[in-house]
Amino acid sequence: MGRYHPIPYQSKIREKFISLFGIGLSLSQTIWWAIGLMLSYRMSKVVPRIGSDWFYSRLHYVIPFAVCVFLCHTKHGPTGLPVWKYVLDVVRLRLRQRKFLYRRQSIPEEG
After folding, report:
1. Structural contact between residues 63 and 41, judged by C-beta atoms closer than 8 angstroms
2. Among 15, 62, 68, 103, which is least packed by CB within 10 angstroms?
3. Within its chain, how far is the Cα of 91 from the centroid?
4. How far apart are alpha carbons 96 and 88 in whole angstroms?
């Protein structure tokens, strides 16, 4: 008999930590929502309202929450990762310590 590696079962059921308004949120999504709400609240304490209309004068307070919701719910197309994980990986890749495995022998070391 030949050896084979069975394909593991991959459930399409998502993890649910909490349900809000019919939306099941995982733990990381709940943390992102909480961060967005906290930033919006702090922004409302620092930044004044713009104008006198009740709705439009407070609309800019939603921006931090909207950015956090975008980062946690949107997936990067080719990789399938959440956008926040993809951005974090790109930043880590750009800032990593590079190690060059080659060295030119014709240039003497200075020291």
Report:
1. no
2. 103
3. 12
4. 12
